[in-house]
Amino acid sequence: MSTTSQNSDPLPIFMGENYDFWSIKMKTYFMSQDLWDIVDSGFNNPENSTVEQLRQLKKDQQKDAKALYALQQALHDMIFPIIMGATTAREAWNTLKEEFQGNAKTKDLTSLSVTEVMGSLEAYEKRMSRRNEKSVESAFQSKLNLRSQKTKEGERKIGEISRK
Question: What is the overall mean pLDDT for the chain?
Answer without folding.
Answer: 82
